[in-house]
Amino acid sequence: MAATDLPLAPLERLVRRAKADRVSMTAAEALRDVLNEIGLEISSRAVELATHAGRKTVTGEDIRLAYNQWKKRW
């Protein structure tokens, strides 16, 4: 997965919504890289869940369940 999958402007806005006064380009890039990595982990788990359920289509429920499982690891 390429690190450029997510555009930087929305990520900068996300950090600003967390009350940052200023956001460096490297901060937005780092957040993009982290979110890409986490997104890939959660998506891969969601595919496993769908496959286990005998489906080829990944649903929102698969994503939510995969996210909750990922979150519990921390």
Report on this model:
The chain has 74 residues and is mainly alpha-helical. It has helices at 8-17, 25-52, 60-72. Helix 1 (8-17) packs across helix 2 (25-52) and helix 2 (25-52) packs across helix 3 (60-72).
> With helices defined by DSSP (H or I, 4 residues minimum), what is the helix count?
3
Mean pLDDT: 94
What is the CATH top level name of the domain at 38-74?
Mainly Alpha
Overall radius of gyration: 15 Å
CATH topology of the domain at 38-74: the name is Histone, subunit A
Measured distance between first and last alpha carbons = 24 Å
What is shown here, in short?
The protein has 74 residues and is an all-alpha fold. 69% of the residues lie in helices and 0% in strands. The two termini are 24 Å apart.
